[in-house]
Amino acid sequence: MKTRFSYAFEELTQELNRPPKAAMRAMFSAGIMLSPKGWQALSVDTRQALAVAGLHESINESMVRQLLNEAGPSHMKMVPRIQDPSRRELPKGLLAALGLMRTVTVEEWDALSPLDRFVLDSLTHNTRLLWRAVEEISRRPDSPLRRMPTKPWSGALARCEVFVRPEARQLLLSSKFLGGRATLLARAAGVRAARRAGRFFDLQAEVATGPTELDWSIARTTGVMLWQAHVSTWDAEFFPAASLLAVSTAAVAVFDMIKEVDPHASITGAGIAEESWKVGTSEDREEATALYRAGA
């Protein structure tokens, strides 16, 4: 029987270049957290073993500590042990974070797996990832969460607008221009920049980039291309610098592509804003994201 140990919203490859939520649950249960460099020091087999350890109802803390020893003491930090939230009562923080997004009943909460409850409770400070996690869990065929209409997410994100003339915009979206890959190339540039944010900003040198959402849409009335991004750190905090870097880089990439055709093209409105997610969902990704499975 195959068991999932990575969620799609985490955007992880099979090598688990950062700890999935399952591994985070295992480490918090043992009271030990690794630094980003410490996680990178682990072998892929050990990373996957830690993820699998976080799946079980009861975590073998002794085994988790033994696996973490591979990273060495210099990369290990003792942290308060975090117990799983009660299955009998929904955490108040989770209810507040869900807000008008949707409802979760006590019966649904009780029927979730320990890992699902841990994940939802741990994302109350990042409602974008919480929104994605709820959507993903509710879409499973055997999910106890009811499928129900979910209101569009709204919250802190980065945004940037690109103004181009109609004929240039038509060319930009044409299959004849750059093989029809113009927006894909712009998005890839923005994602790469976001993932390297720690190298560009001294104050963020120790911060590792986590899930990276970046997409675009064209306003029907004005024809303006809007880029929005929500980038998180590896421990699921909103990462404003990386988010703004993502949208700005994507916008500059579009400008660079179209400047010869439209010398009047311009970039404006770059910043962090509280607004709804208005852009589409790209099916193409610079790196494949999938659910990786391990036997349990």
Number of helices: 12
| Biggest sheet layout | 4 strands, antiparallel
Structural class assignment: alpha+beta
In whole angstroms, the N-to-C terminal distance is 7 Å
- Oligomeric category: single chain
Nearest-angstrom radius of gyration? 21 Å
Compressed to H and E, one letter per element, the order equals EHEHHHEHHHHEHHHEEHEE
Beta-strand content: 15-25%
SSE topology sketch:
Elements: E1 2-4, H1 21-30, E2 32-34, H2 36-41, H3 44-53, H4 61-68, E3 76-78, H5 92-98, H6 106-111, H7 114-122, H8 127-138, E4 154-163, H9 166-172, H10 182-195, H11 197-200, E5 209-218, E6 225-233, H12 240-258, E7 266-276, E8 293-295
Antiparallel strand pairs: 1-8, 2-3, 4-6, 4-7, 5-6
Helix pairs in contact: 1-3, 1-4, 3-4, 10-12
Summary, kept brief:
The protein is of the alpha+beta class and 296 residues long. The protein has helices at residues 21-30, 36-41, 44-53, 61-68, 92-98, 106-111, 114-122, 127-138, 166-172, 182-195, 197-200, 240-258; strands at 2-4, 32-34, 76-78, 154-163, 209-218, 225-233, 266-276, 293-295.
